[in-house]
Amino acid sequence: MQGLQSFSSLLARSFSLATTSVSRHVGGQSRLLNISSPVNLIQSVRGISVNQLHRRGPFKKKENPFAKHPMDHRPQIKGVVLKTLIRKPRKPNSANRKCAKVRLTNGKEVIAFIPGIGHNLQEHNIVLVEGGRTQDLPGVKHTIIRGKYDCSHVVKKIKR
For position 29, what pLDDT does the model report? Predict the structure, then answer.
């Protein structure tokens, strides 16, 4: 019991004697903070009390749901066409851009642009999708690769 008391008194003395200065960048200015105990250190650096830290647990970085890569950082991924769409481009351009809603093999759904003139895609077709956004279509960040699986090559026009 005496060993526990001596340890706690030693701990209390070390906390009371410990005075450190921490440089903190606030509002464009560097401020020097004098910290006399670890409680003040936590409050000044983290802006949280020891009681809150005890209740909430250690700090965890929140995952950004928008930062998740739909293709799991692969160059191409296979998918199934759910629906073919016609999208209108942004302001200066005017056309009907052919797109398709595709469910990828990892379970995520994306909207992909179908390049070239004319296509044979319909529901349940298998396609290969790559990254690469279409500049004038908002929200379309993938492209279907022509000539792979069920998506045919672009048919050449016959010169007369």
Answer: 58
